[in-house]
Amino acid sequence: MDCVVTGGNVKVLAKAIHSLSRIGDELYVEPQEDGLALRSVNSSRSAYACFLFAPLFFSRYTVHSGHTFRCKMAIKSVQAVFRSLASLEKTVEKCHIELDDQNNRLTFTLHCKHGLMKTHNLSFQDSESLQAVFDKDSYANVFRSNPRLLVDTVMHFPPSLEEVTVSVSDERMWVRNHVEEEGDQSKAMLTELCLASDEFDHFAVQAHNSVTFCLKELRGLLVFAESTGLPMSMYFDEPGSPVVLSVTDSVLEGNFVLATLSDDSNHRKKNNSRGAHTLPPPPPDDFMNDDIDSYLIAMDTSVAPGPSATGPPTPQLADSICSKQTAAASHRTRLHSEEEEEDKTTDSGRPPNKKFCSLFFGSVLPPSPQMSTQPVSSQQVLASDSEDDVQ
Amino acid sequence: MPLSTQSQGDAEQYVLVASLDNARNLSNILKAITFKDHAIFSATPNGLKVTVEDSKCLQANAFIQAEIFQEFTIRDDSVGFQVNLTVLLDCLNIFGGSTVPGVSTALRMCYKGYGYPLTLFLEEGGVVTVCKINTQEPEEPVDFEFCSTNVTNKVILLSESLKEAFSELDMTSEVLQITMSPSQPYFRLSTFGNSGNAHYDYPKDSDMMELFRCTKTQTNRYKMSLLKPSTKALALSCKVSVRTDSRGFLSLQYLVRNDDGQICFVEYFCCPDEEVEEQ
Prior knowledge:
The complex is a heterodimer.
Chain A (H helix, E strand, L loop, with lengths): L1 E5 L1 H13 L5 E7 L2 E7 L5 E7 L6 E3 L8 E4 H7 L3 H7 E9 L4 E8 L4 E7 L1 E2 L14 E5 L1 H8 L8 E6 L3 E6 L14 E5 L5 E3 L5 E5 H14 L3 E5 L6 E6 L3 E7 L5 H10 L18 H11 L13 H7 L1 H7 L12 H5 L44
Antiparallel strand pairs in A: 1-5, 1-7, 2-3, 2-6, 3-4, 4-19, 6-10, 7-8, 8-9, 11-15, 11-17, 12-13, 12-16, 13-14, 17-18, 18-19
Helix pairs in contact in A: 1-5, 4-5
Chain B lengths: L1 H7 L7 E5 L3 H8 L6 E7 L2 E8 L3 E8 L5 E4 L4 E6 H8 L13 E6 L6 E7 L2 E7 L17 E8 H10 L6 E6 L6 E7 L2 E7 L6 E6 L3 E6 H4 L2 H7 E9 L4 E8 L5 E8 L9
Antiparallel strand pairs in B: 1-5, 1-7, 2-3, 2-6, 3-4, 4-18, 7-8, 8-9, 10-14, 10-16, 11-12, 11-15, 12-13, 16-17, 17-18
Protein name (chain B): Cell cycle checkpoint protein RAD1
Main location (chain B): nucleus
Organism (chain B): Perca flavescens
C-alpha cells in the first residue's frame, strides 16, 4: 500500500482515527481495492466502527492487487502521529502512508511547514478481518440530519451518562437518558428531548420502536461529523438489533454499529406487572407530562415491538442474533461473556444488568469480500445475554 | 520607596546586592532550570550564573547579566553559595506571582558572605516581605569541558519548530537520538518507543533554521529523562542553538527574552548515552 493524503483531508483522516479511538484500543487497517478501510471494535464486541476512504480521497492510492494485507496496531500510536489535531491543518501539507513489507512497518510521513518532516514507523500485528454484519438498507427506521441537531441534543446529557434511549413515532423522535431498572427510581433524573421530523433532512419510520445504546460512541462519531460538516444518518430496527450511525460523502463512508439493549427484561417485567401488549406509544406528550410513573410505563411499553415492527424485511442480523427470543433461548449457550464490557458498572457498584448483545463479526481468515452483506454462520462471536438467571 | 530606605543602611556589609523591579525576570528563568532542589549561585561583576545538576550527566546554567538588574553590586571578584532552588522560587512568588500587567514584585537580594543566609526583600503594593534562606556549602559544578573549538556540529533553530517536536516526542522511548550531518538528513530527532520509531527531520534550508554548520555526521543518543527538563527552557525561549562536540556531548543554548525585552541565556549540557556507530 502506498497512499498520499493532502490538505484538509489530513485532518479528516486524523479526526476519523480520533473517533475510532472512542470505540476500541486497536486500529485495524485494511487497504482494499475500493479504498482504505480503518476499523475498530470494543473489547466486548458490542460496538464496531469502520471508515472507508475511497481512492479519490487520496491524491495517490496504490494497493498491490491480488495481495490482501491487513493489520492491527495500537490506536494510541496512530493517534500520536496526529497528536496536535488543532494545528494539523496549518502545519501539515501532506501525509504519506506506506507499508514497508520488508521491515513490517507502517510508515506515516507528515510533510509539514518549513520543510519539517515527521516520519513514524509503526509496528503492527497481522490480523484477521474485522467485519460487522449489518445491512443498514433493510432497516425499518432511517433518519438523516445535520450533525448539529444531534450535537445540540446530546449536549444536554451529562458526560457520565452511559446510554440513551431513542424512541420514534411517525412525526417525532424522543431522546432520553436510560435509567437502570434496578436503580433507585426515586433518585433518577430523566431528561428527554423531543425532535420533530421536520428538523431532519430525512425521517422515515416504519416501526414505532425505541432502542437503547451507548452514548460514548455516538459522541465520537458526532465529533467527526461535525468537524467535517457531513450529515449523519441513523438506522435502527428493534431493541436488541444494532443501531447503525453513518456518515457518507462521495469519498468516504463511516459506519458505527452499536449494540442496543435487548428487551427481554422489559418483557419479563411486563409479564409480571401488566399483560398488556399494546402498540408502543411513546410518551404521550413531550412537555405536559411530568409524571415519572407515566414515563416509566411508557418506557416499559414503548420497547415492545409492535405489530408494525414485523412489517419491514427483518435484517439478517436481527435474524441471527439479537431478537429477544433467540437471546433468551440461547443465553445458556453463550459463547462470550459480557461482563468485561461493563467495567464502569461494576466499579460504581451497580449490578451488571446490561444486556447488550454483541454484534456479529466474522473473525475469519481469509475473509470473503461480500461478508458485510451476508450472515456468517460459523465464525460469529456471540455475546448473548448474561445474568438473566434471576427469573 | 520602602525597599531602598530599609536596606540602604546596611548595604556596606553585603558582598552581593542585586535589585530587580520585577522579580519575575529572575523567577521565570530559574524555573527553566528547576529539576533538582539545589542550585549553585556564582556571581561575578558580569552577572549571576545559577547552576543545577543531575547525576553528573546533566547540567543546566542560567545566566542573568548584571545589566538585567537595576542594581548589581559585588564587592569580591566572585561570590558563591548554594541554596535550595525550590525554596527560593517559592519566596520569589510569595505574593502569588501575579501576572496582571502593572503589578510586579520588586526584589532586593542580599548576601553577607560565607555562612550567612541569602536575604530577600520583596515588595508589592507597599507590603514588604523579608525572606532569609539558609545557604549551603557550594559544590563545585562539573566541568563538562565543552569548548567551542571542539564543536563539530552546530545548528540554530527558532524554538517554535522544536517546541512542536518536543511536545510530540514519544515518551515511551528511553532515548532521544540526535543526528547532525552535512548531508541528509541534516538535523534529525529520533525516538524508539513501544509502538515503533519516529523521526523528525529539519532540512538545512528551512525557514526555521537560522544557522546550519555541520562538518561531520554524528549520531548520539541522550537519555530522554535527562533531556525532559530542558523543555521548560525551550518553552520560554525564542531561539535555540544545538551543538555537539567531538565526544558527542550535547549543548543546548536557549535565548530567553524576559518581560522587559531583555535577553538572558539558559544552557544545558548533556552526556551522550552510548556510542552509536556512525553510518
